Amino acid sequence: MLDKNHLTGGIPSWLGGYPNLVALLLSRNNLTGTIPPSLGNLSSLEALYVHTNQLEGSIPEALGRLRNVQWLALFENRLSGTIPEAVFNLSSVVAFGVDQNDLHGTLPPNWGNNQPNLVFVYLGVNHFTGSVPASLANATMIRTLDLGDNNFTGRMPPAIGTLCPGILTFDANKIEASGTEGWEFIMPLTNCSRLRVLSFQFNMLAGELPGSVANLSTHLQVFYTGFNQINGMIPPGIGNLVGLQKLQLSQNHLIGALPSTIGLFRNLQALWVDGNQLSGIIPPTIGNLTQLQLLTLDNNNFEGPLPVSIRNLQQLSSANLSNNAFTGPFPKEFFNLSSLSYILDLSDNNFNGPLPPEVASLTKLAYLNISRNNLSGSLPDTLSNCQTLLGLHLDGNSFSGSLPTSISEMRGLVVLNLTENLLSGTIPQELGRMNGLQELYLAHNNLSGQIPGTFQNMNALYHLDISFNHLSGQVPVRGVFANSTRFLFIGNDGLCGGTTELHLPACKVQSRKHGNMKIRLTPSERISMRDAADELRKIRDRYLTDLSRANNL
Predict the structure, then answer these.
(1) What's the pLDDT score for residue 478?
(2) pTM for the complete prediction?
(3) What is the pLDDT, as a whole number, of residue 527?
(4) Burial bucket for residue 73 (CB in 10 Å: 0-12, 13-18, 19+)
(5) pLDDT score for 103
(6) Which spans are transmembrane here (predicted)?
(7) Beta carbons of 466 and 439 less than 8 angstroms apart
(8) Model confidence over 304-334: pLDDT tens digits?
């Protein structure tokens, strides 16, 4: 065995001089060059493992002489060209693995007849074209059929469903269906109790999802149908698939409600129904999905308040409910989910009221997006407890009051977006301590005062937008402001100075010499100084007048 040994260079031609060799295991190395045709002389070879290398060129015609080979593993290389017909005729082959190469061409119509012993077929991530051969149904021992990421066209032969594989995937092709035609392969699959994975996302399948999917194996664990043109409603009977761990229906044209029968998926870990036209409320039965880790409902027409039962999703790490029409106060149920550690996205809905101080309980969350809702009130100081946040998006609401200085304690924050709110007061100097902050958006608020000088030291700051506020004073020119072409200040009439690239007006100053020291006075300071001088003159004159009167007595 020579696999996983960091071998380099090419496969030596002299290896073909061992006709009694039974297994050649060269996988997971750094081998380059082509597969030598001399390997076709290994007449006793049963296993050829050269996968996971950097081999290139075409598959030699000579490999078609390996009449005893059962395991043909050429995947994860840079092989190109077509597969020789002689290789498709090797009747002893059990595992046919050529996935993740640059192969092209069509599959022989009689392939399944010529290799009846096939069990594992991996053709994924290549450039094969044409139709899927119906003859594959004659290779009745197939347990895994992976045709994904190619350019297969036409309809999936109905007979493929009779194979009863454990895994059937033909993702990312151009397989078609229209109406009821093209979906016939589903019906025979309902007799397959061993089916574990069925995936046909990223194709050209149109029409309604057949109701017969409800009769697929209760042992089915993965069902991916997304990124097609499927319309109609989600079959209510889909709840019969009680073994599902992952269900993906994304980016289709599905309508109607989310069936309450989804509550039967007690083992479900991930649910994607985003990018459809689903409507209605989220059924309370969603709270039964106690193993759910990923919930993606965005870009639909769901409405109403969220069910209280969401608090039962104690394994949930990521939830995206954006771009819907949900209403009601901010759903506090999420604050009970200590498992939330990746994304909570509730943006582009109609949630109203304040952001509750209980937001502090999201101590593991990386991204919080509640942009473009109807939230109001002041920002809670407790936000600073969310120490793991990398992105905080609160823009497009009606938050008011001042910016809490406690936000500066969120030292891990990379993006902070508070654009288009009603925030007022000055920008806290303390924000300058956020050394990891890369993007800060404060535009379209009612902020006043000066740009904090501490911002000059925010070395990671890449984009700053404080446009359309009431800021005044001089724009800093040092530190990150020395190259401020990615900083936006427009709509603040009181700002001046800054680098020349900003094209802001010069700050109006006047200077006068006092000894060796030059004193610069602003217009308001000059007025104050004149008033003070006039008052001093009046005091002096009164003093001199009083003194003169005293001397004359």
Answers:
(1) 93
(2) 0.88
(3) 43
(4) buried
(5) 99
(6) none
(7) no
(8) 999 999 999 999 999 999 999 999 999 999 9
Residue indicated by tokens 């990671």 = 460
Nearest to 120 by CA among 136, 140, 103, 142: 142
Nearest alpha carbon to residue 373 among 436, 331, 402: 331
124: Cα separation from own chain's centroid: 23
Distance CA 331, CA 287 (A): 14
**Count of CB atoms situated within 10 Å of the CB of 35:** 24
Would strands 197-199 and 78-81 be described as parallel, antiparallel, or unpaired?
unpaired
Q: Which two tokens stand for residue 370?
A: 């509640």
Per the CB < 8 A criterion, the answer to whether 343 and 366 are in contact is yes
CB atoms within 10 A of CB 14: 9
Structure tokens at 268: 């479900």
Total Cβ atoms within 10 A of residue 30: 12
pLDDT bin (cut points 50, 70, 90) of residue 423 is: very high
pLDDT in tens, 371-415: 999 999 999 999 999 999 999 999 999 999 999 999 999 999 999
pLDDT, tens digit (0-9, with 9 covering 90-100), for 228-271: 999 999 999 999 999 999 999 999 999 999 999 999 999 999 99
Largest CA distance in the chain: 140
β-strand 174-177 against 374-378: which pairing, if any? unpaired
How high is the mean pLDDT of the chain?
A: 93
- Write down the domain spans for the chain: 510-552
Q: Can you point out the beta strands (E) in 281-322?
A: 294-296, 301-304, 318-320
Compute the distance between CA of residue 330 and CA of residue 361 in angstroms, rounded to an integer. Answer: 14
Which residues does 22 contact at the CB level (< 8 Å), separation at least 6? 44, 45, 46, 47
CA trace torsion 534, 536, 542, 548 (10° rounding)? -120
Place of tokens 């939230």: 375
Check residue 535 and give its pLDDT. Answer: 56
The letter for the amino acid at 99 is D
Q: Which residues is 401 bridged to in the sheet? A: 423
- Region 436-444: mean pLDDT is 98
| Helix H or strand E segment including 393 | strand 391-393
